[in-house]
Amino acid sequence: MPFKTACGPQLANSPTVIVMVGLPARGKTYISKKLTRYLNWAGVPTKVFNVGEYRREAVKQYSSYEFFRPDNEVAMKVRKQCALAALTDVEVYLKEEGGQIAVFDATNTTRDRRDMILSFVKENGFKVFFIESVCDDPNVIATNIMEVKLSCPDYQGCNANDAMEDFLKRISCYKNSYQPLEPDGYDKDLSFIKVIDVGRQFLVNRVQDHIQSKIVYYLMNIHVQPRTIYLCRHGESEYNIKGRIGGDSGLSSRGKKFAMALSKFLDEQNLKDLKVWTSQLKRTIQTAEALKMPYEQWKALNEIDAGVCEDMTYEEIKEKFPEEYELREQDKYYYRYPSGESYQDLVQRLEPVIMELERQGNVLVVCHQAVMRCLLAYFLDKSADEMPYLKCPLHTVLKLTPVAYGCKVESVFLNVEAVNTHRDRTEEGKKGPSPLMRRNSITPFASPEPLKKPRMGSFDEFSASSSVDASVSMPSEMPTSLSAQNVRELPVL
User: pTM of the predicted model, to two decimals?
Assistant: First the structure.
């Protein structure tokens, strides 16, 4: 049966099954969900198949750890049937529903179980990649049980101490039969990564394609240490007031007040080792200047490029480029401005930012509306369809705190008024793509329409107006000398 493909970049010739391996309470579901969130955000259709959920569906009432004893033959048959049911759904997802990656989330601690999965993969022509989570730190295990396992359906209404005791006995049921992956023996020909002690060490074996390399790189960058990520837009700009997109205008008087209010807000947060990131555009730099602390400029954080529509209002775009206006209304994520970018392009540009955010502790990102939407969509697991309509108002800080299987978000308005730049989805947009969807949704757009006009006279003018402090940390990606040809002003959408 031929594989159906979903819209978006095809990163693998055939679908991939990611197989989790490890004892209970080793973070397998955490890794599964986090990795799935990242891959979906990056445009790779991915879904988790948690065998525990199939087991809870088959056995409505959990009794005790006795169910997981290896000598409980009735329970062993039920557990195998649950695994087979999950694999059946994996096959449907990858062959018929446009999925590219399926994450098979279970303990898979024995060779027999893994060999069964390998036979399934071979029969269906799928690729396979194993992720084994190994951890013997009792503190980490206890924390995982307390934060996640005791709140799962198996222990609803159960005393915490009794639940902890039962779960530790459940782990013991698996330990005696646990057969770890052996890179120098039985499993030497398999593709896998061992994540040891929550990222303290990694062992990688036979990475065979781009998607496996992408997964390894991501897993080697994430951590579970407590931290807070702050996202906000620059202060209100002169172009915001005029309703124009793009340009490199400076802050309005209210935008400057927000920058001062942001500085006070951060002082009150009493953060340790806070890092501040901005784009290379004037309005974010001026906002960061008021904070009186070092910051890094990222070209990747520049606003989405509106191409030939830069410096225009939406009314002007509708009048001058009515077809472009209508096309963007129909599918805002995939639509690419002539000579500019789409949200899809922006997501790809922001991947290095996401990787670095995952590596860091406390970070403040001062960015732009479309950029903030893309970053927020990653942390809150929002779809490509939802992403371009996420509300990211001016003069509001979003405080993100990673938790077990997601991210807690708190919105803080800093009491400085600003224009509203949010545009709701239109009725045309709600109908979905029409026959007009064409040319520049996936592939670069080439047309006889006019080239983008230059947006700056000189870099000296830019430097003078933004007054960047000498203490600012400039990333290596920024050229040592800039001219009017390679300094770009990007739009606020």
Answer: 0.86
